[in-house]
Automatic annotation (TrEMBL):
Top-level taxon in the UniProt lineage: Bacteria
Assigned keywords, A-Z: Membrane, Transmembrane, Transmembrane helix
Keyword Transmembrane helix: yes
Organism: Rhodococcus gannanensis
Bilayer-spanning residue ranges: 7-30, 50-72, 79-101, 134-155, 162-179, 185-206
Name used for this protein in its record: DUF4386 domain-containing protein
Keyword Transmembrane (UniProt): yes
Amino acid sequence: MTITPAFLYRLSAGAVVAAFVLNLTGGLLHPVVDGNSHSVDSLTAWSSPWAQLILLVGTVVQLAALPGIYAWIAPRVGVGGLVAFVTLYASLMLTALPHLAVEAFVSYELASDPGTAHLVPADGSLFPSTTFTAIQTMFGLAYMLSLIVLGVVLARSSAVPRWIGIVMAIGGLICVVPWPEAPGVTGLVIELPRGLAFAAIGVLILRAGGEHVRSAAAERSARPLPV
């Protein structure tokens, strides 16, 4: 089998759609008890650590797929799109992956043992580490900002339908709002913004058969000269 750019675009597109389904499922299953999704009671609820593991797998799949998604839209989004995407990708790597790994494999184990359950912070910070909390906060803000910027860039470009960029930007703004934690709602607030717009781009790629989106300059040069 020949590995062509079109095949890689289709592979990335399918993966990003699958990641959206996984992350949305994990987010909806993620337990929230008494307004705290990272308490001992939440970490030992019936859907833990399965919800967190689904989210972790979905995040890994999403991160593997996103470079292909960006490469497909790159000719249309310019330097601003590149900076926003790199910031978004790096912030996801430094927030979502460590957060979910710690939650599924560390905090869950601490909460499950009566002798160590007291080590789980009661304030929802997940792990008693100032450095961990600071990194999560700093890059979490970077993620929200880059999501908004990339959404604006997409909405102003012709790479995808404008509504996809608008949805992405609104998703970033929604994440800035300190919503009360509630079962199902918290998962939707977090997972819809980071997955829906990218999944929609994935569907576009699949419909196009993996054909590369061309830059505006390339399209102008391809037009026949007037006679």
